[in-house]
Structures are given as C-alpha cells and as structure tokens.
Design goal:
Elements (H helix, E strand, L loop, with lengths): L16 H6 L1 H15 L3 H11 L4 E8 L2 E8 L5 H31 L3 H31 L19 H23 L7 H20 L3 H27 L5 H28 L7 E3 L4 E3 L1 H41 L4 H12 L3
Antiparallel strand pairs: 1-2, 3-4
Helix pairs in contact: 2-3, 2-4, 4-5, 4-6, 5-6, 5-8, 6-7, 7-8, 8-9, 9-10, 10-11
C-alpha cells in the first residue's frame, strides 16, 4: 500500500522530477524493503545486517555478588555509515507519514496561506522530532545516571564504549538530519529558505558527528536534550500562533528558556572540556584508543560550541527586535485610522513574522 495518496487527474511521466517528488515515500519504502528482505536469505543476510542492526558489539562480563552477568556495549566505526543510511531512509518514510496523515489534514482545515503553510509544516515536523528526541534522550540520561553524577561527563574519558540506547540514539540523530537534505528537494523548498535550512542542518550534523567521533557522547547527549527541549517550545509556540495570532505567551516563555539554555550549554561545555578533560590523567592523542584529549582538540571543540552559541544569540536578538518592531507598528496603526492598503501590508507582515 502506498504511503502518499495519488490523484487520478495528474500522472507525471515516470522518473520525472514531479513523479519522484509525488512518489518519493513509496520509492524509499521499496529501497528499505530490499534491505529487510535481505535478512531472509543466508547469502545476503550478512550484508543486510550491517544496514539494519547496530554494529561493533563488545560484551563485558561483570560480577554482581556471586553471579556473573554479561553487559553489551558498542563503539563506533566505519560500518556505522551503512546503518545511518538505512535509518535516513526510515526518517524519510516517517516524514512522509506525518506530513500526509497529520499536517496536510490540519492545513486543509485551517486554510493557511502559502507562507504559513510552509512554516506550519516545518514546525509540525520539527516539534514531533524534538519531542521524541527529548523524551528518548532524557530516559537515557536517567538510566545512566548522568544527571545525578555530572562528573561522569568527563571522568573515565575516552568514553569509547556506549550502551545500546545511546549508540542507537546517535545513529538515529545523524540519520534524521541527513534525511533533511533530500527533503529540501522532496518538499519543494523555496530558494530563499534553502540557505537558512542548510545552515542549521550543517550545524546539527557537525556537532552531533563531532561528539560521536571524538567520544564526547555523554556531553553531547546532555546538550542535545537541553537544546531540543528549548526548540520544542519554540515550534509548539509557533504552531499555536498560527492557529490563533493573539496567543503569543509561548514565545515569551521560550525567550527566557532560550537564554538560560545558552548559558547552561556554555557552562557545561567549559566545565567538561575546559576543566574536566584538561585536568584528566588521560592526556594525549591516540586514534586507536579513541583518545583526543589534547589542547588543540579541546580549543577547537570549545571554539565551535562558543561560535555556535554566539550565532544563535545573534539570530535570537534579531528575531526579538523584529517582533518588537512589528508590535510597535501594530500599536501605532491601532491609534490611527488605517487605509485598506496599509492594513493589508500590516497583515502581510504579521503572517511572515514567525
């Protein structure tokens, strides 16, 4: 059964751009099904399992009282690229399901303009992803006791071994943000919106992959959960704003938490990388052991985090100034009799504010 509904009125040529865009979810589903069918045959199962299951399993025996138990951990490697590719396909399929059965139905009920339509779809997709990632990441933090023991963020570095949930979390994160690249084509993103989306996709991929490869996975997980919670509030507030433009309280709450989130991100990063790793006994560079605890790497990591936070604050300040300017113009226009032409310009400005 196809995921995306087809219309009988338009049948674009096979393998044309419009055909691929309309049927991309079905095409990707067939590709993913090939890997799943590969598990059924002995000849192809060894190849298919690289794409579907998490690789690089390490079994560690631990003694708990008089019983010996085996605990499975995982480290990263080149085969993870295949697994990331498969879950990128899964993300494309899930994106199409949410779009078809949730967002498109809401759009038809609300009758949004073209500008609001694209922004509503973006916030709808991202709010679902941020909520899922925040809940999943929080459960990992609680189960591994990272929140109750902050010293574990740098103690025992390099953290080459990860529990299954943590490694699978990073695989899914990288797969999701990679899927956002072809979605720019599948969703017919406007040319003026592509640079903005490419910037934040690139920033996500660089920071998540950097934490994963440099074995800073614990710090990366904490920062991701913190960041996703703040971003979830923003996109939910924007969805509420689109349904009722008088409801803007969510943006006020988000603004406060955004600044707090930036301060916590910088504090945790400096504490972990600048102080924790700098005073750690495991100094030096060893690629085989996964140890990257040298001054150059620490400075590079802190510089990347600080520059990113500064860039986000700059965007945040511009956003707040634009809101304040639009609000001031709206208050001025309420005090004066406005013509139809000026009123239409005001409505247009409000529609594109968020």
């Amino acid at each position: 059964m196809g995921i995306r509904k087809k219309t009988a009125s338009k049948n674009p040529p096979v393998l044309s751009h419009e055909f691929v865009i309309q049927n991309h979810a079905d095409i990707v589903s067939c590709v993913a099904m090939v890997f799943l069918l590969g598990l059924m045959f002995e000849i192809t199962s060894k190849f298919a399992v690289i794409f579907i299951t998490v690789q690089y399993n390490v079994t560690i025996s631990t003694n708990e009282g008089s019983e010996e138990t085996a605990v499975n951990h995982f480290h990263h490697g080149i085969k993870d690229l295949a697994t990331i590719f498969f879950y990128m396909l899964v993300a494309i399929i899930m994106h199409a399901i949410i779009q078809e059965y949730v967002l498109d139905k809401l759009n038809r009920k609300k009758h949004f303009s073209k500008t609001k339509h694209s922004k509503f779809n973006e916030s709808g997709q991202l709010s679902a992803f941020y909520l899922f990632s925040f809940c999943w990441g929080t459960s990992i933090l609680l189960s591994e006791n990272f929140l109750s023991n902050p010293v574990s963020l740098w103690e025992g570095y390099p953290h080459t071994l990860m529990p299954f949930q943590m490694k699978f979390y990073y695989i899914c994160q990288l797969g999701y943000w990679l899927h956002a690249l072809p979605e720019l084509y599948f969703q017919k993103t406007k040319k003026e919106d592509i640079p903005r989306q490419l910037v934040y996709i690139f920033l996500y991929l660089v920071h998540i992959a950097g934490a994963y490869v440099l074995n800073l996975n614990r710090l990366g997980l904490v920062l991701l959960v913190l960041h996703y919670f703040v971003e979830f509030l923003f996109h939910v507030s924007r969805l509420v704003y689109f349904s009722n433009e008088n409801r803007q309280m969510g943006f006020t709450v988000w603004a406060v938490l955004f600044v707090v989130g930036r301060l916590l991100t910088l504090s945790l990063s400096v504490l972990t990388v600048g102080f924790g790793l700098a005073t750690s006994e495991s100094q030096g560079f060893n690629w085989a052991a996964g140890n990257f605890n040298i001054l150059f790497v620490r400075i590079t990591v802190l510089a990347a985090i600080c520059l990113t936070q500064a860039f986000m604050m700059w965007k945040f300040i511009n956003f707040q100034l634009r809101r304040w300017r639009e609000h001031s113009q709206a208050q001025t226009l309420k005090k004066k009799p406005v013509s139809t032409k000026s009123k239409s310009k005001k409505d247009k400005g409000e529609r594109t504010l968020f």
